[in-house]
Every structure is written in structure tokens, then in C-alpha cells.
Structure to design on (404 residues):
């Protein structure tokens, strides 16, 4: 009889812990060096948690995924596919570019799936049309395995895809041979290829992006309102019938920026960067349980793309510990002391880059010399900074320090 209250208390504490988490990861392409950085921050407070410089000048639209199993953020930099890890921060180039714009990750096992369009030719080599292939992407060697073909789906909507990690189902919006927008559901854990195609009767002319609530098994889609006023709405789509019902109406929002939507599983929140009636671009959070739209704090405004929520804690609690499907790059630890520092910062680690970079809370970077193992801080204003550098193998090492 004594165990039940403690068990219930543990569940309540776990629920509170999960509800408090809203960590967002995105790519900032406005670096002074012309290189993209991957930034991770607390969306509720705006506090920057990590900022990792990459070797890539930018990213392929819609190619980012967050693997909650390995706690790794992947994206295609158009030159190389890349991995960014956290705690400790690390960066590594993988193989050649190849991740496309509709990649999704299974939170239960880390496998990455996607759809891609391919041309179809006749026996003489003449082009006769196109078809859609469903593939598994191997992050280790940048190869794809075709799991099935959808000949009646001629194309698909960019960024309109999501993944149900409860049943292992990949969803995307395709266009069939009649020009009808179709919801395609593809199971990934069974044997064989058995997609379900559900032509949609749209109450509104356009559906834009899909997000899946794994906590309540609900498929969401952003849409316009179907009138000349052109404002955003959030719809629910029945995954068995394709029926669409209105979840929320946002008359104050005229549109959103592509690749800036994600779903925070722990807080049941749809996040998006949207444009209001005054033309302002703002980071919003819509709570699908409280039905409330609110503004989120963030470290920068209008400079991020490829947003993903860090759902690693949620995934580990709900799906348990599983064998990682993707390799994790080795990490090199770096530390700085004293912390806080005054005029001199000393560096320790099993490998120290010859040149490093100091980044402030606004994302402004300055190149510095380590001068052996010390950095002159006399020219810096007091505040919080990130110190990062690149090793010979391309991996980025980073630590945080305070200047007094």
C-alpha cells in the first residue's frame, strides 16, 4: 500500500520535467565567415545553449532531421551531409551530399526515411514521365535504398511530411495522376511495401506542412483559410479516412516561413516562424492541448531555418533505450579556465586547435589565436561567450565561458 503514492509522485514529477522542455535547433546562415552554424536554444527563455560552426556555406532546404536516439542533428550542406552533436558539442562531415528535402526520423530507432522523384523512360530512352520512390537514407555512407515505388504519385509537396514513431508510419502529401492532393501513409516496420493513398477533399485550397503529435496520435497540417484574406489555419487530418477538420484559426498570421515548423512532443506544441498582418516575422508556439497561440523568445529574429525540436528526452522515456541506427562521430573534450575569466582564458584538452573563434550572444564571431594554450580577453566586453575551433579531421570542439 505504501508504494502506490510514491509511484504516482514519480509519474507527476516525470510529467512536469517533460512539460518544461522546449529546446529548438536551427541553422543560422548569417555568419560573418560565410559558414552556417547550428544553434540550439531554450525556446521559452531565449538562452542559447550551443552554437556550432560548420564547414558548409548553407543547407539544402528541408534536409534537416533530428535523431533523438543519437541526439544528433543532421543536414545536407549541399557539399557534404553533416552531423552536429551536443553535450559535448561536435561537428563532422559525413559523405557526399544526398539527403533530400523530405527526410524524417523514427524516434524509436533512429532510421531515416524519405521520398524522392525519379524520371521514367521507355525502351528507347525517351522520357515518358515521373514517379515517386520511398527510400531509407543511410546516414553512415550517404546511400539510399529504394523500399518501394508509387507510380500513381507524380510528385509531392515540399516540406509536407512527418513521421508517426508509435506505429512506424511515414506520411507525406503527394499529387496523383489526376492532380489530386493525396495523403500517403507508408508503414516502415513490417514486411513488404504497403502504402495507403487517401485522396483529400480539401475545404481550403492549400495544405502546406505536416507535423505529427506522437503523444496523442494526431496528424496536423498548416493551411490557408481559402479566402482572399489568406491567413493561416491549423487542420487535423484523420489518418484512416483523410477527413480534414479545423483545429485553430489564426487571422493575425498571413503566412509562415518554410522549414521553420516543428512539433515539440513534450509540451504538445506546434512551433513556427510566421508573418503577421504588419509584415513582422515572429517565432510562435501553438499549444494543441491548451489551444493557445503565444510568442516564443529566441536569440535571433528572422535568421534561422531548418528548425527541429530536441525531443530526445521525450523519446527516451516513451520508446526506451534502443540500438542506435546511425554512427556517432568521436568527440574531443575541451575546457577553459578560469571560468569566469578576466583578461586571460586558458585552454585544456586532449587536442587543441591552433586557431579558434569566440562567438557572443548575438552570434558575432571573432577569430583568435590560442598562443599555445591561452587567449587574450582584454578586448572583450563582460558577458557569456562560446569558444570553438576545428580539428584536422573537421570535427568542431567547443566550450562556453564567462568574461567578467
Amino acid at each position: 500500500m505504501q508504494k502506490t503514492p510514491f509511484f504516482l509522485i514519480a509519474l507527476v514529477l516525470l510529467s512536469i520535467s517533460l512539460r518544461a522542455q522546449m529546446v529548438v535547433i536551427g541553422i543560422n546562415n548569417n555568419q560573418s565567415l560565410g559558414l552556417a552554424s547550428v544553434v540550439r536554444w531554450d525556446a521559452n527563455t531565449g538562452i542559447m545553449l550551443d552554437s556550432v560552426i560548420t564547414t558548409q556555406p548553407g543547407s539544402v532546404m528541408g534536409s534537416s532531421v533530428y535523431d533523438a536516439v543519437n541526439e544528433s542533428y543532421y543536414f545536407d550542406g549541399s557539399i557534404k551531409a553533416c552531423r552536429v552533436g551536443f553535450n559535448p558539442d561536435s561537428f563532422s562531415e559525413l559523405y557526399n551530399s544526398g539527403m533530400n528535402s523530405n527526410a524524417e526520423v523514427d524516434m524509436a530507432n533512429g532510421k531515416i526515411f524519405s521520398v524522392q522523384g525519379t524520371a521514367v523512360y521507355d525502351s528507347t530512352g525517351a522520357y515518358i514521365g515521373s514517379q515517386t520512390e520511398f527510400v531509407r537514407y543511410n546516414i553512415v555512407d550517404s546511400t539510399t535504398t529504394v523500399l518501394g515505388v508509387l507510380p500513381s504519385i507524380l510528385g509531392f509537396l515540399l516540406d509536407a511530411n512527418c513521421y508517426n514513431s508509435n506505429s512506424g508510419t511515414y506520411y507525406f502529401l503527394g499529387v496523383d495522376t489526376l492532380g489530386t492532393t493525396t495523403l500517403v501513409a507508408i508503414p516502415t516496420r513490417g514486411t513488404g511495401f504497403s502504402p495507403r493513398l487517401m485522396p483529400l477533399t480539401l475545404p481550403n485550397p492549400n495544405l502546406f506542412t505536416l507535423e505529427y503529435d506522437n503523444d496523442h496520435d494526431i496528424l496536423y497540417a498548416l493551411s490557408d483559410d481559402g479566402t482572399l484574406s489568406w491567413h493561416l489555419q491549423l487542420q487535423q487530418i484523420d489518418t484512416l479516412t483523410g477527413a480534414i477538420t479545423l483545429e485553430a484559426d489564426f487571422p493575425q498570421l498571413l503566412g509562415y516561413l518554410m522549414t521553420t515548423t516543428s512539433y515539440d512532443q513534450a509540451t504538445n506544441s506546434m512551433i513556427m516562424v510566421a508573418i503577421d498582418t504588419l509584415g513582422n516575422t515572429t517565432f510562435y508556439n501553438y499549444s494543441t492541448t491548451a489551444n493557445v497561440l503565444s510568442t516564443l523568445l529566441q536569440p535571433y529574429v528572422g535568421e534561422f531555418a531548418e528548425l527541429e525540436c530536441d525531443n530526445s528526452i521525450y523519446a527516451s522515456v516513451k520508446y526506451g533505450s534502443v540500438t542506435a541506427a546511425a554512427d556517432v562521430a568521436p568527440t574531443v573534450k575541451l575546457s577553459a579556465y578560469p571560468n569566469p575569466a578576466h583578461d586571460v582564458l586558458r585552454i585544456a584538452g586532449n587536442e587543441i586547435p591552433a586557431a579558434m573563434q569566440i562567438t557572443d550572444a548575438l552570434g558575432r564571431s571573432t577569430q583568435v589565436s590560442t598562443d599555445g594554450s591561452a587567449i587574450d580577453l582584454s578586448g572583450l566586453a563582460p558577458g557569456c561567450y562560446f569558444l570553438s575551433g576545428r580539428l584536422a579531421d573537421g570535427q568542431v570542439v567547443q566550450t562556453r565561458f564567462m568574461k567578467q
Q: What stands out?
A: Helices lie at 3-19, 312-319.
